[in-house]
Amino acid sequence: MKNRIRATAALAVAVVLALSACGGKDDNTGTPASDTTLHIVGFAVPEQANKAIAAEWNKTDAGKGVKFQTSYGASGDQSRAVVNGLKADYVHFSVSSDVTRLVDAGLVEKDWNAGPNKGIVSSSIVVLAVRPGNPKNIQGWDDLIKPGIGIVTPNPASSGAARWNALAAWGHITANGGTDAQATEFLTKLFANVVALPGSGRDATTAFLGGTGDVLLAYENEVVLATQAGEKFDWVVPATTILIENPGAITKNADPKAKDWLSFVLSKDGQRQFALKGFRPIIEGVDTSGIKGVKDAANPFPAPAKLLTVSKDFESWSALSKKFFDEKEGIIVKIIAASGKAK
Asked: Is 204:152 a contact under the CB 8 Å cutoff?
């Protein structure tokens, strides 16, 4: 009898071990638990939003059990890291040119931006963050070039956020009747007032919150997220600013689950999570109620007086990258080099 009990117990243990080796069963559905791990590589700013989206996706049938391995940093640095071998199923960068680098390297399909969203997964605008109470009375771009104003903005050499900031400042002149020469003069004065040029948008926010400078050029969602975390500062939406459009793409060798992930990111549920972290939804019909940290919960994303876009005001990322950010001949690159502020 004892031998029979031992044999039965041994058989039960063997069955449990066998089930575990096969990945186990979900107690509620009876379906195999997922052993998929998606590798997400992104720029620093949307990390919290992507975590929130992942948590919601894990509640769906498509996302149940899927795990994530993530890497976040300055957009340009992250893009180059993927080219150099960093594993990625899905990339989420600040600017489209950082995805183009992966296309050129044969890692992302050429038609990655052929869908209705043109490859864009998140959006925001450039704002001017200031100290509580706005002691320097910053009301717009022209105030930034006044004597004694210390500006914090990331470095365009590594940061996509920095490129959006520079384009918004340039557009303040050219979209309001100014010439390229006048815009160059304005950017020269602006960078003369820069007191910190960190590597990424997140590093710039950290530097500003640590006490550096009077004004931070930032994504709107960054200041909302920081406010949600209890940080105390104000921000100004300048009369002219730019629509920040962040691209997302699946790599050629991505796990098949990456397509389900991207579909959820672009859905109303996914965009709702972006909105809760301060990003502006890229599709209509997204619930934007209950967003904390905004100035007006009833109107969390007010329309700027003049909103620039890359396609309308700068032709394309390919064209503007060459004009402004070419390593040798780019206008912004030359301005920063002449300022002596780059590391």
From this structure: yes
Q: Is the dihedral of CA 99, 103, 109, 115 positive or negative?
A: positive
Q: In Å, what is the CA distance from 43 to each residue of 77, 155, 169, 216?
A: 9, 14, 22, 18
Contact at 8 Å (CB) between 343 and 162? no
Token pair of 12 as six digits: 């039960």
Burial class (CB in 10 A: 0-12, 13-18, 19+), 141: buried
- Residues with Cβ within 8 Å of 171's Cβ and at least 6 positions away in sequence, in order, are 240, 242, 308, 313, 314
Residue 281 · residue 289 · CB < 8 Å: no
| Distance in angstroms (rounded) separating the CA atoms of residues 143 and 173 | 13
Nearest residue to 254 (alpha-carbon basis) of 41, 98, 90: 90
Which residues are CB-contacts of 187 (< 8 A; sequence separation ≥ 6)? 166, 169, 170, 331, 332, 335
- DSSP one-letter string for 171-229: HHHHTTT--HHHHHHHHHHHHHTEEE--SSHHHHHHHHHTT--SEEEEEHHHHHHHHHT
Binned average pLDDT, 10 residues per bin, the chain of 343 residues: 41 37 38 77 95 98 97 94 98 95 98 96 98 96 98 89 95 98 98 94 92 96 94 94 98 97 98 98 97 96 97 94 93 93 69
For residue 202, which of 82, 74, 40 has the smallest C-alpha distance?
A: 74
